[in-house]
## 1
Amino acid sequence: MAARPNILYIHSHDTGRYIQPYGHAVPTPSLQRLAEQGVVFRQAFCAAPTCSPSRAALLTGQCAHSAGMLGLAHRGFVMPDYSCHLASFLRTAGYTTALAGVQHEAPDSAMIGYDRLLLKPANWAKTLEHTEAAVRFLRSPPEPFFLSVGFFQTHEPFEKPSAAEDERFSPVPPPLPDVPAVRSDMAGFRASARVLDEQYGTILSALDGSGLADRTLVIATTDHGIPLPGMKCNLTDHGIGVYLVMRGPCGFAGGRVCDAMVSHVDVFPTVCELAGIDAPGWVEGFSMMPLVRGETQQIRQELYAEVTYHAAYEPQRCVRTLRHKYIRRFDGRSRRVLANCDDTASKAHLLSVGWGDEPIPEEMLFDLALDPQERENLAARSERAQVLADMRRRLADWMTRTDDPLLRGPVAPPPGTKSNHPDDRSPKAPMTVMG
């Protein structure tokens, strides 16, 4: 058997796909170089557009509720079994595991079981000292290794824009109006993306300089969409669409673009196949290696995503096929949960024009081929009744198969967790300690 590859997992907060390799006017030259050397997955999706559940899903290879992560780690939510975490699993297979920077799967990094905790920013500070810690590790690491390097960027509050991020000329994401408030936020987002990309470049240069690049799989991704209204914490593609760029041995080379639909839960079994390790029984994803080897055009016909808790309770689930998206809300509310939208200038603008009072339907059905922005809800259209029934069935089957707690009614927060009231207009409102 060939030597097991090293794994370098570099990840950001709240970036979505709104970066240069995906055709957007947000310069990220280091990620662009990585894309030109590796494989870009243009249709990659997270399993939950909220921070901790998304990361738990990627790092366990199963949906967030199967992993037991229903809310945010810094608000007290935990996974019941961290032996399912990729770092813990690889450690038992002989990998040296190390963490530098942000993780958001556990309230305390020590719970995950890394061999080495290189440096964790205190209190979510934007310090970039963990980049240097990662560089030091890469100078002479034990092999094989799994190194996770996490960044606060591009979470808000954003970095201060430089002259290169002039808000007058900033791009505006499709769900939002082209107004000064949104352009100002996007100038800050671009500045944060610049800082993030510079750190990625430093780490990738260290990997190349160490002579390890040819035997190291680089996985670069983010948790979910950007922290503006209609994106993060939403189940449209604006919320669940993520960048996923991979470079390394066994076919992850050549600057190729893969248009197959993949989920974050597919990363775990892909790593297992590359390492020659049987995927554990809890894994719900599929290896992406048949795509990389050119053996098939698709590895899945559908994928799923979910929200239970973010700042507040807002239970919703979705199923996405190649053609359609079905979203179902389970809280009986007819208005959006505003606390689950980060406080930004864009949010303030939309609230000023009545966005917070707009009704939200319980069910939404979108035709992604004809309506890629997911603006026209087709759930009530008689001519789409058969499609709606099929998508309802798919979602119900998945929820049953994965023993979704929503099947038993409203999901109570675990004891000791903190949550906002659903009627709060801001995540900064006083939180209630549950249990």
Note: The chain has a mean pLDDT of 95.
## 2
Amino acid sequence: MTSLNGIRGCFLLMALGLVAPVVRAESLAAVRARIEQRVEGVVRLKARLLVGENNAGYLEARGALAAAEQRVVTDENADRGLVYAAIAAQNKSAPEEVGRARASKLAAEARSGEWVQDRNGQWRKKN
């Protein structure tokens, strides 16, 4: 199951690179609305230490997730990817660069005790 999710994630990231120029302001508004609707669920997953913020700007499972929890992570990451791609297109950069920059901010904003991944890929609980 995990490898299947990893494969899906890779295809999603590749697809995002192809659709980035197509993302319009109205669709970004829809993406933002979906992200805002998920905030409480994401906060709960982080508080329960089931997910953390990785160094690429995405949520990553840190424990076993129920199907509904995995769906929150998958949906959140898909929408983050769309946002990163749109920002990258505007700035003529790569979505991965945008994600890494956002990861630094997310780590800085993380609550004490939440999982964050440093640049070297090491996981730690934020102090």
Note: The longest strand covers residues 51-53.
## 3
Amino acid sequence: MVTTRRQSGAVLRPTAKAAASPSSPSKAKGTDKSKSSASTTHYEFMGPPGALGIILGLPLVCYGLVFLCNEDTCLSLDALPTTFPDPPKNMPLFSIEACFVFSAWMGYCVLLHLLLPGTMKKGTMLPDGTRLTYKLNGMSVLLVTILLTGVGIHTETLDLQWVHANFLALLTAGVGFAFLFSFVLYFGSFTTTKKGKQKILAKGGDTGNYLYDFFIGRELNPRIGNMFDLKVFCELTPGLIGWLLLDLGFAHAQFKKTGSISVAMSLVCAFQALYVFDALYFEPAILTTMDVTTDGFGFMLAFGDLVWVPFTYSLQARYILEQGVELELMHIIIIIAIKVIGYSIFRGSNGQKNAFRTDPDSPSVAHLKFLKTKRGTRLIINGWWGICRHVNYLGDWLMAWAWCLPCGFGNVIPYFYVVYFGVLLFHRDLRDGEQCEIKYGEDWKKYCATVKYRLIPGVY
């Protein structure tokens, strides 16, 4: 779920950077160009009941994280609530102003995406034998936004701390927008193209069950015109940049409140900003991820991109603002060390994989050993990818710890992300393994016998 990161299709991943396997691009053989989709009745996430549970449960989790921990109160393990807690007193649950701000933010991101220049990249082969062209300019949108935000704060024409006082109302606006957008995507998948052809549907989203298809995503690549790809745009632009702006809003509020920005707040904002910058700098990598190549664009990705990522991943910055955290020097050193190790694993492994895919004969990756498959592709079996099958997930999870540890150990709530993300990566690994076994057959079994560990070397 929320790419991500980057960076990685399970439900609600940060971004969608993680690939199914460290292989070079495959050559499509025997593509049936008459087919625009391939129906299936194979369900994930426990089928329609699981889809319904996730559709209803995800918004409740988003609200629950605010209700359980805010300026008025914060859950402790020795005082568990017996009823769903009340919202914080100074945060409205809904406002027309917040709806306008959220809609204006989406419109602003669309406008900049259309107006700013970008890199044109071809995607992978589609079921009908064609390849779409994508306009990628998320980094340009980010840099312009940071510049305008800095000017606005410096000239006092922008009060970014507003996002904290109106956080719940913004969340409500985002939830409403995501549901409405998901319905538009679902019903739009039943229309035809301008040439009267059926739209290309995602194999997993064409089950015929309305609820499940709405959740998982029915159309593979919904677009407006020839270049504006809705899925790729939402994966990396409004949600990721919005997450960073929420962090900066909490930091701004702390500065206005105390006259300074704490070390804990600085670490969280810096670490998460690096994650966002990394995702957008390596934006073309998203085109080979499961999110783009396999998953349809429905509620799962729409809610994950536009609501889950910004409003739950900013939890640590909000917690530090509301609760106040002081860190010892040794604590700071350990946190930075974990971040450096995690990012080194994450970026090193992803960089090695992408270099091998682009040019396996390059001096930087020519030394790597690989297993050649019957499909003509190669699976790396040493280097970063000889450590475990998803070593990039391991680096990603270590970085998650570096985001949470600045919150100290006074409460369990800010550690929601690292627990959730660990479960997410475990599920994503199982999902990727299933897809790779279908894709590579016996070659995948040989690969698994060579690279024995999935996520944590020597453990799992």
Note: The chain has a mean pLDDT of 88.
## 4
Amino acid sequence: FVKNSNVLIAIQEVIDEFKSEIKPIEPTIYEPKQLNENLINQYTLTDFHLGMMAWDEESGDNWDLKIAEKTLLNFFKTSIELSPKAESCIFANIGDFLHWDGMDAVTPNNRNVLDADTRFTKLVRTSIRLIRQIVSMLLYKYKTVHLIMAEGNHDEASSIWLRELFSAFYELETRVTIDTNPDPYYCVKFGKVALFFHHGHLKRLNDLDSVLVAKFKKEFGESKFVYAHTGHMHNQQVRESNLMIIEQHRTLASRDAYASRSGWISGRDSKVITYHKDFGEVARN
């Protein structure tokens, strides 16, 4: 339904009204640290499926709202401690952060029924609380934080209000930037490095590179090191083309019953990738 232009206009009107009621958070005081201005840390998260329900006897691991919240906060707490002392960071949520997108627990386009934990209102509250906590953790370590809330096939509409909500919430916080691009392709330029992001539901590994170059000609042309990050398939793949390195990432979430019954089994992880502005990728945890 999101592809309907009238619905999109209506959603945007609701979001604009919603944003008008948000009181922006006051800027936090930054305490200078010995940080490397030549480095940026990318916290890579995709297909987290917050709100999904999984039963270990059926799919191998339990998953619900409480487990998901604890897992994500523990990941960021540990990874922030282990990450190099870069001056900047990217919280790169590459789509499907939420498992479903409205009052009905179904996929937006195909209306496939999903295994869902609890009510949508509780899911919304948990997602907002989680992102606020994570950004606060990142602001404590980094001078600047860039937030990407990419569109996924499970949260087409919710990714819109998440971007707009946090853009309004951090309006006064100059150390936080939000990518509010409505097009589901995203770019961060860092020195000689170009970083691209797309969930993977519209373009897959084999033909993603040409689309990204077409959309971000300037950034691509000015860069020596080019990387694209995607998800959607829940397994790890890396493809190096003539244009860039494209990496498809795993998820931290458990597999659901549908994935288990279909035989789609892969490992679970999330990565922090460190880039140097002159030399490209230099580390990962």
Note: The two ends are 39 Å apart (CA to CA).
